[in-house]
Design brief:
Layout lengths: L1 E8 L3 H18 L4 E9 L3 H11 L3 E3 L2 H4 L5 E4 L6 H10 L3 E4 L7 H14 L3 E3 L7 H11 L10 E8 L21 H17 L3 E12 L6 E4 L12 E8 L4 E7 L8 E8 L2 E6 L5 E6 L15 E5 L21 H16 L12 H19 L5 E2 L2
Parallel strand pairs: 1-2, 1-4, 2-3, 4-5, 5-6, 7-11
Antiparallel strand pairs: 7-12, 8-9, 8-10, 8-16, 10-11, 12-13, 13-14, 14-15
Length: 390
Amino acid sequence: MKQIKVLVIGQGFMGGIAHPRGILEANQQLRPKGLEFVMECVAGRNADKLAVTQKQYGYNRTSTDWEKEIGKADLVVVTSPNKDHAPMAVAALKAGKAVVCEKPLSSSLEQAQEMVAAAKKAGTPTMVTFCYQGAPGALEARRFVLDGLVLGKSGYFEGTSEFLQDWGRGGRTNFRFHAEQGLGGVIEDLGAHQVDLIQFILGKKIQEVSAQTRVYDGDGEDLKMIRGSDKKAKGKAVDAFEAVAYFDNGCSITFRSNRTSTGHKAFFENTIHGNRGGVQWELEDQGYLKFYSHTRPDGLKVTSRERGWTHIHLSDPGGDGHYNTDTVPGLINGYLQYFRWQYLNLGLQLLGKPDKAYSVPTFADACQVEAVTDAIYRSGLKDGELTKVK
């Protein structure tokens, strides 16, 4: 049995729940294949909270000094606030460790590029947890697109991606609102997921963007909007944005995101329209994928009586099965299981037996996403000026 000693840095939701649960659940499928992730150490600032986390997930020990623990691990998992990603990940890479990092890769494009360079020099595996790539709905949408059921011969498409939450109306104490974590704000927090998932589904990369950004002043009913191009917004993290992103064939996707959309807890809807059909997947209704067929497989157009959106229940394999659907029909998978699938794929890669059907997002992949979110931020500063992705 190949054992991989894991150091998890961070005690928030990601480090305290999502990642350790994903690792332990992945072990259930990896052990029969000859690999096991060992919960070696969890590091953070609060010793009392660390003690509880240790009991929950069976860590061998805890530490309040992550730097001293890096040399004792095989895999370092960075779930700290954004500004700490780069120094922690680079230190682990210099020590020759495999590294998993939460998104966004860093708080700036320049730091992200430094992390990619460090990973290339180290030659060790890296993964960034763009967890929605593991969602059955996203994988099925990607399959429909790549199988030619959505785009026509010309490759034309257009679509939308919205990620709306409302927890930001309750105050601005969370670190995600702080400029020190990166001026991109919600662009890096939610927008990074949007950019990654749309590119993943389409199998294409964004080249240019035109964006409007805003920062908010006040809370609750006193909330006021300031445009990102306004001098009053200088030095403040972005709270909301809209952007049109263009691909190399001229086709576009429109993005919208904020954390002050009253009534939405995690509304993450992605829609692609092509000449042959359309697909739509939404996180708050994650058990279903919507598919619209304009042209039948035999090339004939669908008649008016046959037209309509089909709701596909993602827990029903329907004879062709699905890697990331492992419940019985009718019982849906959930958000935390997306982490299990990512760690499963990472484990297979560490065994030298990667599943070719599924990708492990690397530091290089995440840096490309950060280049897009950086362009969105820069365009917002210039009141929507068309801006190239670096």
